[in-house]
Amino acid sequence: MGCAMRTARSKHQSADGFGLIEVLIAMSILLVGLSAMLNMFTLAAGLNANQGEAAKRVTEYAQDKMEQLLALDFSDAATNTTVYPTTAAGGTGLGGAMAVNTTVPAGGIDPSSPATGYVDYLGASGNLLADSNGALYVRQWSISTGPTTTLKTITVAVTATRSLGPGRAPSTRVVAYKSQTE
Q: DSSP string of the chain?
């Protein structure tokens, strides 16, 4: 009879399932894995939000400058567009006095060599700065006159000076045409 009891007891013990200690160990492992994934998700979401915000801003700042330039008279060669609001003198305007040459535009959009009179610098909140110190965005533009002298091509490029998240610093380029109306 003693032998029958031992057999029944060992069968009963193996059928009990998991004990409290096993469940606690499994839950601990699960919590460690979930917290690591939550930290990665939070970091990725934050970095993507910052990078997306910077990409949105470079486009917005390019459009703002393009609207400012398109509002000028076709032959304007004096309005200072590096300040806001613009002033009637002390600037380059739309380069009204430049020679007709589509290969040599006034200004330039090469980030390594900003052209004086065709560049401005913006801070993190979009405020216009006096120079490149502390600038988060560099806004450059060029203006070229076509062979008919009645059409100007305006190109505005905005580049973030550094990346606010993973990947390259965002940049954008906007191109528009302004025709001479009589």
A: -HHHHHHHHHHHHHTS---HHHHHHHHHHHHHHHHHHHHHHHHHHHHHHHHHHHHHHHHHHHHHHHHHHHTS-TT----BTTSSS-BSSSS-TT-TTS-S-TTS-EE---TTSPPTTSEEEE-TTS-EESSSTT-SEEEEEEEEE-TTSSEEEEEEEEEESS-SSSSSPPEEEEEEEEE---
Tell me the whole-structure pTM to 2 decimals.
0.71
Domain span at residue 118 reads 27-179
Q: Does residue 79 lie in a domain region?
A: yes
Instruction: For residue range 55-82, list pLDDT tens digits in order.
Output: 899 999 999 999 999 999 988 888 998 8
Q: Predicted confidence band at 105 (pLDDT cuts at 50, 70, 90)?
A: confident
